[in-house]
Amino acid sequence: TITGLVIDVRDNGGGYLTAVVNILRHFMTGEDPFVTMHRVYDDNYTYYYPDNDAVKKTYPIVLLVNEQSASASEVLAIAMREMGDYPLIGQKTYGKDVYQISVTLRQQSKDMLLNLTEGYWLSPLGHKVTGGIEPDVLSLPHPLFTLDYPIYEKELMLDDDITNHQALVALLNLHEDTLADIETTTFTEALQQKVAIYQSSQSLSVTGTLNYETTLHLIDQYITLQTNPSYDEQLKDAIAYLVAL
Q: Is 234 part of a structural domain of the chain?
């Protein structure tokens, strides 16, 4: 038995209209369209309606959104809010309210796809989402995931500028060691010591530098933490919201 549902469209850049229409027909009720597609060149409107026998869900539902929720994800999010009165939790969405069609072009035996913007879509209440959809409840991700994605550019060592590598510093701070957390934009001796402790604990070559091996090891940890619910502050907020209802 479902007692509550979190629909997560964070980092979802959209997809096929048919897919989101099929999803919405599981949740939308009433006689009004839940999305309207306006084809500009001939001023044609296409309306998508709930199923005639649709019944409103008896359990609470929330949707998780962020800055990378776009296009079809926004169709889903705003329809769920405007027609289902289901709240959005997270961050303001991307704001893509136009749609494309794909045309196949053949040139010298090679097929190429040309994406053409054909029109825009409207929410159940007739709104465009240019500029993005504001959430009902603002929820921010774990501080680690607000930093630039960790990458390897070169071996980082004492006195180097690490302004663009703050995620690596944050990952080192998350590691269990005896040193206090470090906030720095320069590779200091304290950071060098922290790196060496990390390398030793992970059976890496102890150099005290952020070399290729150590950086890739930290990036692997970053990827693991991305799917760890303990570090998903927005999901925790969504669940807490459901529990409080």
A: no
